[in-house]
Design a protein that fits this description.
The complex is a heterodimer of chains A (about 230) and B (about 260).
Chain A: H1 2-25, H2 29-47, H3 51-79, H4 86-92, H5 97-126, H6 135-160, H7 166-193, H8 201-227
Helix pairs in contact in A: 1-5, 2-3, 2-5, 3-5, 3-6, 3-7, 5-6, 5-8, 6-7, 6-8, 7-8
Chain B: E1 23-32, E2 35-45, E3 50-54, H1 61-68, E4 76-81, E5 84-85, H2 90-96, E6 97-100, H3 112-123, H4 128-138, H5 154-167, E7 172-176, H6 184-200, E8 203-207, E9 220-225, E10 228-234, E11 237-240
The chains are: A mainly alpha (about 230), B alpha/beta (about 260).
Chain lengths: ~230, ~260
């Protein structure tokens, strides 16, 4: 138990460090929010003023914006570790590799959760969707969805952080893996916005939970190999 | 300015003659893209000694230090630090080794104090806040504790990286060109640190092109040439020729 508490403290310290650096530098937040806003606005213009059409497309566009902006965010957060050999130094601390993974994933999740909530609000305004009526299931969906993106993104950002073409490679690696998450998140959002008439919301949320658990366990177990040269 | 007595806190080390050798390597080799940067080094460094690694660019000094720090894994051969296998017990080795590389490993957007506080937490340093303040004072950065590292000069960054080493309990300190980028005061700080580590029995390996200033603190010297030990002198370090079946021998890469 004391080992678990110590490791949780260390993971939170890594996440806090990332959050502090992000607050100071705003490397991820500004660029990802701007990117998400551009995606939503462009699709809004493309779909036209028909409010029914906008509302029908809203769940897909919400997750399109969150996933692409999330990929950008996780890449930016890992770039912090390229500061003057910081990733190598982080790997040299006498800390279990799963702790480093957990810390980076928690930091990424925090940034993406803020991003997800802001994008959800923007979708509500821009696409005339009543998110207030289903705020709790929508929030749960956003929490589970962004947690999955952070879990996958942290792992693959570790794979690509040393590559010159990392901005190209990261989405190529992440998007196929995120396909089940995107399906579950979009379906859960559709069900939540419709008031869950067919009682399927729980099933899609279970899919998201299963995805998150599998990805966190797999990421924590294998992240150490990425830190070795 | 650094305080007169630098606080170093090694793990309980015991008498020199009862400790295992600090470093034992056998045919240690590392290849990058198939080209050996280190081509089979067999050496033994006794505990508590200060050893210089000498050699031209590309001789393998940095690669040897990175292998001993567990930053990279060997391609061939074995190595032990304090009797612990570098490959199979890397987690335990990391508790015993501190490494100052060419890169400082600092976060630009954090202040000097925040950088050291983060390191102290990762290292499990007791009484963190006081130790961080003490380390900042010891490396002469107490008055810049609240400044972001982004605004530091190369010399100040190196001082702060040296301060990070003071937060741990290393029994083996690996320094890669520690005098580079430092002014006279900074070089004096490195001399003070070498004296303090010697006093408490910490083993130090220094890779450097210019060891004139460090000469009074050195016990032994190892000259590397093209990834192999070419010459050993002084006390506290011995080397044997690579075994015929050991690592690779072709052309040597720089890393």
């Amino acid at each position: 138990m004391s080992t678990l508490r110590r490791e949780a403290g260390l993971a939170l310290a890594i996440a806090r460090k990332d959050a502090l650096a992000e607050l100071r530098g705003r490397h991820a937040t500004v660029s990802t929010l701007f990117f998400a806003a551009v995606v939503l606005l462009l699709f809004g213009f493309a779909l036209g003023p028909d409010s029914a059409r906008l509302a029908a497309a809203a769940p897909g566009l919400l997750w399109l914006a969150v996933v692409f902006a999330g990929i950008l965010a996780v890449n930016r957060l890992h770039l912090l570790e390229t500061d003057d050999g910081a990733l190598e130094q982080l790997a040299l601390y006498p800390v279990a590799r799963r702790v480093i993974y957990a810390g980076k994933a928690i930091g990424g999740f925090a940034v993406m959760l803020v991003l997800g909530v802001v994008v959800l609000g923007a979708v509500g305004v821009l696409f005339a969707v009543d998110i207030a009526a289903a705020w709790l299931p929508l929030l749960v969906t956003v929490v589970l969805g962004t947690a999955g993106i952070a879990a996958v993104g942290t792992f693959y950002a570790g794979v690509t952080v040393r590559l010159r073409a990392r901005e190209v490679m990261l989405p190529l690696l992440m998007l196929p893996v995120l396909a089940p998450l995107m399906l579950g998140a979009v379906k859960a959002t559709v069900a939540a916005l419709a008031g869950d008439p067919f009682g399927e919301l729980g099933t899609w949320l279970q899919l998201l939970i299963a995805f998150d658990v599998i990805m966190v366990v797999a990421g924590a177990a294998t992240y150490g190999f990425l830190l070795e040269d | 300015m650094p305080q007169t007595t630098i606080y170093v806190s090694p793990r309980s080390l015991g008498a020199h003659d009862t400790r295992p050798p600090a470093i034992v390597t056998a045919d240690l080799a590392r290849l990058f893209a198939g080209i050996p940067a280190l081509a089979g080094v067999s050496m033994r460094v006794e505990a508590g000694r200060t050893i210089a690694l000498l050699g031209a660019n590309g001789a393998g000094k940095t690669t040897l230090l990175r292998l001993l720090a567990t930053a990279i894994r060997p391609s061939y051969g074995t190595a032990q630090v304090d009797g612990l296998d570098l490959d199979r017990q890397a987690d335990l080795v990391r508790e015993r080794v501190a490494y100052l590389s060419h890169a400082t490993g600092l976060y630009d957007d954090l202040t000097a104090r925040e950088n050291l506080a983060f390191a102290a937490q990762m290292l499990g340093t007791p009484d963190r806040s006081a130790r961080v303040d003490r380390a900042l004072g010891d490396v002469g950065l107490a008055d810049r504790a609240g400044t972001r590292v982004r605004d530091f000069s190369a010399g100040m960054r190196k001082r702060l990286a040296l301060g990070r080493i003071l937060l741990g309990q290393a029994s083996l300190v690996l320094l890669d060109e520690p005098l580079a980028a430092l002014d006279d005061d900074g070089k004096g700080l490195v001399e003070q640190l070498l004296a303090a580590w010697r006093e408490v029995g910490v083993t130090v390996v220094v890779a450097s092109h210019a060891t004139e200033r460090l000469e009074p603190f050195l016990d032994g010297r190892v000259l590397l040439e093209r990834g192999l030990v070419a010459e050993v002198s002084g006390t506290g370090v011995t080397s044997t020729p690579p075994s015929p079946a050991g690592g690779p021998r072709p052309a040597v890469a720089t890393r």
